[in-house]
Queue: 3 jobs
Job 1
Amino acid sequence: MHHSKNHLKPAFCLALSLAAGSSLGAPVNYEMNLTTTSGLGAGGTMNTLGMLFGAKDRSGSSATRSMELRLTNPADIPEGYQATHSVPAAMRIGPQLPLTGQRHSRGGERGETKESQPEGRVLIYWGCATTIPKGQPEIIDFKALAARMPPEVMAMTRQSRASGHPASGAPASLPPRTLGWPWGDDNFRGIPGEASAVGEHAVTASFMPQEIRYTLDANLDFLEPMGLATSAGNTRATIPLTWQALARARGYDLHAVGSNSEKEMVIWLAAKGKSPMLPGRQHECTIAEGVFAKSPMAMVAAQAFGPLQGFAYPPQKPGEKKPLIWTAKVRINAYDNLMVGMQDAAAGAARESAKDSAVDAVVPAGVGGVLKGLFGH
């Protein structure tokens, strides 16, 4: 009898380990984001405010492809773990990508400083129109900006926040529950322009009792570039915007940022109270005359929302509520942006210097500190 108990002990420990790993039935969650970026932000995940606060275009305006992977375990991930994502040969990278995480500690946000609260206001316009509609702009004082900012404006930073991760210098006090890629992969050199995600994907981890496996078809491949364009040479009149009609786009978000002075910023949204702002069938929009008339330049950014697909195991029939072991979600998006008025403001300057000057003109000194604090950068 004693001999049998010794044999049962390892099995009992394994069962406890698996139960802890699944956090009493909570599934492992996996995310894959496939992004096509073009315009000034080509080369990585683009976000208007993120670009304005330090990102420079060093790769021209050609489109680039990127992929972000994120695995979230319901329980602490043990020391010495191993986790990989195997991609199909058509991705032209890998074939195994390391999923890594960093130890981090819980901590409060940094306190606001006087520099992050200058006096001033932001003017918010919205809608595709040639003239400014009645009732606009909505005016918000900088001191009340965080509390009153419309959700559409806060959504501008959702993408960059989703890709954030703890700083490498953070104290090692908590084991991570989230692993990801490409951060932590010192061998990663970018995804080729001809790469395709079509095929079978498999995620394995030493702490997961079962691998995550799903297959992507052509509908879930990278989107084509948006091709955002305008015929406007300056910000004084209407700014007509056009982009490619992407067959797989579910909808589009467009927004623009400029500044009238050191203490007055202007934000324009293609629509207010909608997500996405514009339907997938629409591929043109006009910023009304007068919105950026006092701004020397304006940064316009666009996002195309492509297919969204979820996977889960075990598969669920309608009405079933089986305990899930894992879930996976695949998002396909595209980003593009352009600067209106840059040629006038940067005439005679080198291309890189022109872009730096344009960024400084769009967000005045002092205002950048406020927005960095509000948007997490």
Job 2
Amino acid sequence: MKPLPVIKLLLIILIPIHPLAETLIGGRPSLVLEHEQARLVVDLAGGSFREFRFVDQPLNPLNWNPPASNQTSPMVMGHFLCLDRWGPPSKAEGANGMPYHGEAGKVLWNLDDEVHQPGGMLQARMTATLPMAGLKIDRTVQLAPRSTVALVSETVTNQNALGRPYNMVQHPSIAPPFLQESTIVDANGRKGFAQGGTLPFPETPSFYWPQALNRDGEIVNLRYLTTHHQPNVVSFTIDDPIGWVTAASPNHGLLIGYFWPTKDYPWLDIWRHSAEGKPAARGLEFGTTGLHQPFPILMEKGRIFGRKLFEYLDANQSATKRYATFLLRIPSDFSGVEKLDLTEDRIEVQERQDGKGRSFSISFEGLDIRF
């Protein structure tokens, strides 16, 4: 056997070989991306983002974790993906085994690429196959160096021999202790309606963010979740090119936010849940639909406020959608977010003018966020 040249031998020694960054957390296979600022954890048994927090602060906004009889099986938690649908299957689909919100949170995800650090970037790629839906999902996650901004890109491919409708909704779910009655949710939603109206016109009566109407016709401020959670699911259109939603807990000095291109996700969907008179969960959801119904009803209805309620993938066709998430430290007297702006390498968060109107900036240098 011919010996390796000295230079090649040195390269083998000096260049680290990164193992797959799969680890077990509570007996569950997980991906951990962590640097000196932030820690991001993806649960591979369901693909959920189960943890996103500052390294020096244990509080995790995405700690919503419903009980399960088998804690090692695929399940949804924290921020999960609804695919190929948002909401219930039809009666016939349910009888054939299609789960609520689709299969993406009910299958194992494979960690395909090693975690690597180009320029300090943490990056990983994972895939999942949805057998009943006939879809494949490819996801790339990037955590910016020395920053608390993460970028997620997801490509859905129709592996069926025929085209089909589908929906794709991101379901970030916040829970106590981050979620309190004082936690403030802000967004750039526009015109909205409450789920559960009489079909085929569930959008009547309509309202405008942050207001909603409960079953008694009373105005509810959706920025807060107090003892009464009705209406529990409301959907809003977004008129701006970039949609955004934030949740701020001034008592903890912490804000989590999301932003995305509206062309990818034209709907903002807010879920609210109380238990024993206290806030239990809030879904900061955004996606391709605003109607929480099976496909036959979506197809019959077609559009609400002129916006589509489903998308279509032809045979072997793919669609790519992106979003970003971030963490921000805030003062204890923070009054909420007025607006969110993007520059070439920074997120600019403007506090509400009914507070102190302060500005906060977060760098995402190294991420290619061109929405």
Job 3
Amino acid sequence: MIKLNNIFKWYSNKFVRTYVLRDVNLDINEGEFVTIMGPSGAGKSTLLHIMGMLDEQSDGEYYFLDEPVHSLGEKRRSELHKYHIGFVFQSYHLIDDLTVYENLETPLLYKKIKSSERKSLVADTLDRFGIVAKKDLFPNQLSGGQQQLVGVARAVITNPKLILADEPTGNLNTKQGEEIMDLFKKLNGEGTTIVQVTHSERNAAYSRKIINLLDGRVVKNPEGLTV
């Protein structure tokens, strides 16, 4: 599903080039549950954003569903993201002037899903996440944990092929966090590919493969195996 060849990401400031990712090579198969771990500043979120086509690598090749993302135009990249990827942001990224209901409905509108089906999907999702009572509230009326729940709900409502999650339980209490991870496990069991960035060993235990990043590079795991 995902193939990254020699991915570099850097930012240039006059004559200085600051590297965020260095020579990253990864293969993620359809149906896998993968965790990306590493210290702050290792490049985890940047790598996730490149996979989600929300950022572009400075050099290297990215193939998604056998399409060469690195040579596609913005319109096609946007279509691939819209139809196949659900993204859970660390900082929520909810639309401030839309209600919870409208935030959940937005990705369905982008996919041109008809009104009756949209209403049904939003109602089911509100119920599934226990946020029916919050449907008419705006993001600034919600706690951080509630905003995170809405962010996760928005990512899964379209039943994407790939879910990319950046610290998906970072603002949730233990019970909520376990419910989200159990949901991811269930979705993965049904065939959804999941890639999460987390500092949590507990969350990482849900995945089948762990990728360790350090200073922008993929490093060997403690068993000495490159993952």
